[in-house]
Amino acid sequence: MARRSCCCCCISIKLRPTPSAPAVVLAMAAAALLLLLAGAGVCDAAPLKAHFYRHSCPAAEAVVRDIVLARVAADPAKLPAKLLRLFFHDCFVRGCDASVLLDSTEGNAAEKDAAPNASLGGYDVIDTAKAVLEAVCPGVVSCADVVALAARDAVSAQFGRDLWDVQLGRRDGVVSRAAEARAGLPSPANNFTALEANFGAKGLDVKDLVILSGAHTIGVAHCNTFAARLSSGTGPNAAAGADPTLNAAYAAQLRARCGPAPAAANNNATAVAMDPGSAARFDAHYYVNLKLGRGLFTSDAALLTDPRAAGMIHRLTKQGYFLEEFRNAVRKMGRVGVLTGHHGEIRRNCRAVNY
């Protein structure tokens, strides 16, 4: 199924009447042209905006917030990272359209069953929020907007205030392919060139890349996702077999936790904090660790290999600045490839398209 890009545009058509073209004729021509453009998908999209459901479902944002905060209270260390990662992985494949929530069907493996998404979580929170919304406002609130709100509310819980505002009005996609997830998601093994290309394909720049990488300040990763860093390199850590860009003491800690490199590569059960020393707190500590060679992934360390990216790191160690810049970057990411207007649908069940 082809996917059309949806942009909001305003078209003003002014034609001057002449003796050979009376005003009424020109008016009819202008109206016909507008209808033609609308039929082509030019004017049937609407922009995202704050409080999109103010009139159609006034309780929407409160419903999601209440459910998410209750669930975060029961799992404050893990759930915020899960819901934020779910939002990221949704937006990076086909745009922020909740395609990551769709279950596989006969003959089609969906995004959630692709290897990079195997460790995603938080689906049950989205399902619960959507079920309540369908009871309150049937067919109004999209799953894509629930994902965006849930990520914001979960991360904001520890602060007692919203860290960013969520613009709403997304609609849900009807296509989900595992192959697209495998091709479209950035890898923890990516170098800077690959990361920049991946983000650039979504309309995100180097600054967005550096700031959104700061989301690694919360959550955990399994040993197999970074095991290659424990068995590569020819620099100072060569005797220990570690990537020379990895802090030697940190590499030893990881090896003690995950096992020697051959075993670590197959260890998808043991998890370690992505931001040691501040794993449950959404803060700027990720960048402090990065400067010390304690970035967990190859993709983290890669930020120091590009002068543009590396030049941003020091300032981002300041908490206030990081939160301000993250707010801007995550809002920008939340607009990637969105479906609005008459595109897509409002799913009744986030795991399946409507029939």
TrEMBL record:
Residues 47-354 form the Plant heme peroxidase family profile domain. The record marks 85 as: Transition state stabilizer. The active site is at residue 89. Its EC number is 1.11.1.7. It holds the Pfam family peroxidase. Its cofactor is heme b; Ca(2+). This is Peroxidase. The lineage of its organism: Eukaryota, Viridiplantae, Streptophyta, Embryophyta, Tracheophyta.
